[in-house]
Design brief:
Blueprint lengths: L4 H15 L5 H14 L6 H20 L2 H22 L4
Helix pairs in contact: 1-2, 1-4, 2-3, 3-4
Length: about 90
């Protein structure tokens, strides 16, 4: 369970918006970094590190992947982010 449920829920929504084509990759990457900056507790360092690594991977994809394949490649990273975020939220 995360100490930052609002940041996690906001980022989950950003991930959904990206997959639906409602926001750009750049906006998603900023949202990921913003969430990582908000998650400051030592207990949450693994989540923060995962988000920072995912943002770095998206950044690399943006500059090394053909534009026709970028969305699909980025969605694969987004799915991993969503899985990590969902595991941080309390079970309902």
């Amino acid at each position: 369970m995360t100490l930052y449920p609002r940041a996690v829920e906001r980022l989950l929504q950003n991930c959904k918006d990206y997959r639906a084509g409602r926001i750009s990759l750049g906006l998603l990457m900023r949202a990921i970094l913003n969430a990582a900056e908000q998650i400051a507790a030592v207990e949450e360092k693994q989540l923060r590190r995962h988000l920072e690594q995912a943002e770095g991977e998206l950044d690399t994809l943006e500059f090394t992947t053909d534009s026709s394949a970028l969305f699909d490649a980025a969605v694969a990273v987004v799915v991993g982010i969503e899985a990590e975020l969902c595991s941080a939220l309390p079970s309902e």
